[in-house]
Amino acid sequence: MFSRLILRRFSSQPIPSQIKDIIEKKPINEYITVNGWVKALRRMKKIKFLDLDDGSTSQKLQVLLPSSFDLSRLSYHSGVTVTGTIKESSHPKQEIELHADKIQSHGSWSGDVSYPFAIRQSVPMDYVRQFQHVRSRTNTFSSILRLRAQTRACLTEHYARTGFLQVDTPILTSNECEGGGATFSLQTEEGKKNKEALFFGKDVFLSVSGQMHLEALANGLSSVYTFNPAFRAEESLGRRHLAEFWMVEAEEAFVEGEAGLEHLLDRVEALVRDTIHNVLERGGEDIKLMFKQNTATEGILREALSKPFARITFAEALQRLSSAPKSQSSRGGDDDEKDSNASIKQDSDVRESERRSSDVVVADDSNSDLRREDELLLTELLNGPVFVTHWPAHGRPFYMARSLDHPDKVLCADLLLPGVGEVAGGSVREQNPLALQQRLPRTQNLNWYLQLRQWGSVPTAGYGLGFERLLLFLLGANTVKDVIPFPRWPKHCEH
């Protein structure tokens, strides 16, 4: 009796359809209910038109209503529930339309003139970024968020297909991993008043990387990955930097030596290539919108898929940079700018600074690193993605294994992508407990990490890939601040 009552109660309400499904399936003559927001409103003598958007697709569903319907309470982005029949459309740019016989409005609209967006108004992303709490209502940013979700799904699909197990590494940690010092420390309200009242009894940080925990888990599960937020307290305003961002990190057991490094590069390349290919195939109208706004992006992506990624050593990279024509400049430049307290102007200033970089100042082996303009120039010289391997040991993290043939080099690699620079980095891990003990940072208690080597572990290798930086490459966006829902960077954490 009770089950029949429940069935009657809920069966009387039709299940709302998603606009994406309606447009794909074209259920002609079906009576449906759909929820959404008004994106356009047009009034004729005998009929009224609404363009309806529910966030499931970049395409809009046209709704026809009799002129007798009172739409005085509706305006741009009013929420409505519409019920009616799907009919074939006579309009050349759309195949179907919804002939409504019932419309219900939700919420209220104050008519506030300060609302930042208007119907059919095109505004720059720098402006939209000021209103993070409502920018998902814009066509471009809603497409970016759908593509972000699609990209994440493609990454997850790749790992499942290649036998990697998803695990969750902690957000709170007592280790700094790379020891760079750019970490956020955690403190309770009580701890602010009493330094002896540390919640964990020690200093604890927001995680910069899940790598060490992945190494521990790989020694029981073989191949693991995590998709977690990471946090860096770097005073950078560059287009590639955020204080809170997302990392894809993977670790694989029984991988060592020079052959292990090549295997690691194969893994990273396969992941990136598969993801790009699948997003191109499945991105639909959203990826078309990105390519329309950034006309060079599709060609760059297709070119990247057309051939294997280049692989050169750090020493070879320096040679290529040294022999590059003096007049050849990268598109990058130093993307770290001082805060001008003008959030709209900030990123455009950075890009202008990048465009003014006209002379190549080549990195040298003494600092064991590449500047961003060097990274971008290498991708131009090699016309596509580049792995730079075998970096000088000084300046590299303590956990990287040394090359047996060249002990002053480590078995590591960075992946550089055109227009972005470094997107991923990885290494074969140091397996010798004595060598590792000598390099461990004195400021951190990493006995547990050392015990992984002492208690019967096997060689591992792994990498981390910056998710927002990959999205920069995929979407041709100008800054990582425009490919994440609520970006956090120095002096900006308002929502």
TrEMBL record:
Keywords: Aminoacyl-tRNA synthetase, ATP-binding, Ligase, Nucleotide-binding, Protein biosynthesis. One of its GO terms (cellular component) is mitochondrion. Residues 323-366 are annotated as: Disordered. GO terms for biological process: asparaginyl-tRNA aminoacylation. It holds the Pfam family tRNA-synt_2. This is Asparagine--tRNA ligase. Coiled coil: none annotated. Residues 346-358 have a biased composition (Basic and acidic residues). It comes from Hirondellea gigas. Residues 160-485 form the Aminoacyl-transfer RNA synthetases class-II family profile domain. One of its GO terms (molecular function) is asparagine-tRNA ligase activity.
